[in-house]
């Protein structure tokens, strides 16, 4: 009975467990990581990834997939490192326009009944092209306030941890607790029933994409705050990282089953996996493969647990 | 009270056609306050379409909808809901990934604002307690974790729940199809209470005695038209069936008494309680209250007889699923593909499908069980529910497997189709096929040669030949329960 009550909590067990395990392994390999500075170094690149993962999760909540996440975050990074610093008003307008475009994509995808994969794949070239137009070569500089925000040293816990917790809490409130979040997940679960209750699916889908745009914009800004300059290709791997993060965090491709807290943990796990492999002194050639292996192990573990859960339910 | 009551909803001369198919051909229907209208008809008679018109999901191409004597020009889902029209659909219309409380939020648009969870929880729990007193459904559970019966209970409770706009007209489309007798009783009692308090109900069911005893007035539809409309006491079971224009005959459940016990069983299973055995050519019924282990036995039988990794060359068992949307049809495939998927092994050579033979076999079965479609290449969802179920039957029967497992496959299928399928089952059984048939309907269980009655996951009783009757089954189903 207790198992039944917490099917959402069950979803979080594996991501939390794998993060703890990885963290323990890293601490064992490199005890000096167990400090304020060490933790910040381990996790600060996770902040933009976590934001991008939340963005991807919102799109996945309505049964879609965003393949333009990487180039979009790169584009936003370019805007942040150029316009947002030199001409803040124009910069903000561009960012707002980008978010509106995202919402518009959601509307178009719904109205024309297009596959999101195709539309976002197409858009990824558009964002990529815009990024190159802005910054043909790596450069630009992050606005001072962004830099300050990403390097601030809060008491007790390093910025990376505090930021991750804030992201998780905010995303949880929006996606799991608010009416809009319920509506968005409802569309993923059974669009007909949402429609029959008299909601506008177009508006809700647009809102889901718009929200995803907001989080992706934040990801781009956070990334520039860490790297201080930008490049049109700076975040290309975010597309796959964000998808992996959502899945790792207990989300599913279809059915509106997502978990914001899990997604943030998934992003942290993915970042940590990279550091863990470096600590193991695995050569860079093998790191991508080894990262893939970690992903497969975690997912296999999750499948096993799903099976156990099903058997417990006895259905 | 001004003497003449105004109709909650009055549909006048509604015409709807999908392409060449006339789904509604000038239907006029009025529902008065404090009245339960029974709506019956063959599959494809237009019941679902008229329901869609009333709940605003579909605008008729001709005709009008009026409410409280006020003609509504722009009638849509929101207008319908604002007038208190609610609907329980035949298939699942909740979001399985959301909790019951969250589903309540979706159903009631004006529930928003801070603290909606508490409000939604109160509303749905109150409604569940009223309709199904003594239920044990926690409102924080995800709908996907509930059993089919529990989901249906939640849907029914959802339709009767009141969040600002009180329900005035509740449309129940096959509400009892997944409920066992006692839950169905609770629901029907609630319908009567609701009607007595001035509410209106449109009640659609294939279980005719439910319609007869619950409705005040019965409307019979056929081919998109209303063919009969009378107070409920003006009909009896036979009259209703006749009005629907089907060829159902009473007493078709005559069993041939055959001597089978001597032959060795071709299938046996040691379940809890009595052991299960099946002989060649037998029709075996699994009865008892819904959800008491019948499906589990079928799944166990199937698992025991089929390999985990490689498909068997000559499978012993084949399965007809009950929840056809969940695990029956391939929604994106054509009727033919849906039909042939189980027998592709026989229809292919060197890994390639023999398209000709597939066509021939499909056409053959289309004729044999009368799948009503102009073209087998149409999508499976273009068929009505009953015809989809026929395709699933054809899929199973077209295999060479000598044993057919059936998981309450007749849920929501009209009487005429049922009779056709019963006939096929009897024919196939006479040829030596064995059927293991879980059914929640007494009429079907009575067709079986031998019946195992389940209670709480155990086989409580075995009834054979003339002992298969309603009294015995009910006695066994409730044995060991303090009344």
Name some characteristics of this structure.
heterodimer, A: 315 residues, mainly alpha, ABC transporter involved in vitamin B12 uptake, BtuC, 16 helices, disordered N terminus, B: 483 residues, alpha/beta, Rossmann fold, 3 domains, 6-stranded mixed β-sheet, 20 strands, globular, Ribose transport system permease protein (chain A)
Question: How would you describe the overall organization of this protein?
Answer:
The complex is a heterodimer of chains A (315) and B (483). Chain A is an all-alpha fold. Chain A has helices at 2-5, 7-29, 36-43, 46-61, 69-81, 83-86, 88-111, 116-134, 144-151, 159-177, 179-189, 191-196, 201-227, 238-248, 260-279, 284-313. In chain A, helix 15 runs antiparallel to helix 16. Chain A is globular and about 55 Å long. Chain B has 483 residues and is α/β, with parallel strands linked by helices. Chain B has three domains: 9-244, 3-Layer(aba) Sandwich (Rossmann fold); 250-316 and 401-483, Rossmann fold, CATH 3.40.50.300; 328-397, no CATH class. In chain B, 33% of the residues lie in helices and 22% in strands. Chain B has helices at 47-54, 77-82, 100-107, 116-131, 148-160, 181-196, 208-214, 237-244, 294-305, 324-327, 335-340, 355-369, 385-397, 415-430, 442-445, 470-477, and strands at residues 9-18, 21-31, 36-41, 62-67, 70-72, 85-88, 169-173, 200-204, 217-222, 225-231, 267-269, 276-278, 283-288, 317-320, 348-349, 352-353, 403-407, 434-438, 450-455, 458-464. In chain B, the strands form five sheets. In chain B, strands 6-7-8-3-9-10 form a six-stranded mixed β-sheet, with helices on both faces. Chain B has a six-stranded mixed β-sheet with strand order 14-17-18-13-19-20, with helices on both faces. In chain B, helix 6 (181-196) links the parallel strand 7 (169-173) and strand 8. The A-B interface holds A 4-5, 7-8, 177, 179, 182-183, 185-186, 188-190, 192-199, 255-257, 313-315 and B 55, 57, 77-78, 81, 87, 89, 92-98, 102-103, 105-109, 111-112, 116-117, 138, 140-142, 145, 147, 296. Chain A: It holds the Pfam family BPD_transp_2. Chain A: Keywords: Cell inner membrane, Cell membrane, Membrane, Transmembrane, Transmembrane helix, Transport. Chain A: The chain crosses the membrane at residues 12-29, 41-60, 90-109, 116-136, 156-175, 206-228, 234-254, 261-280, 286-305. Chain A: This is Ribose transport system permease protein.
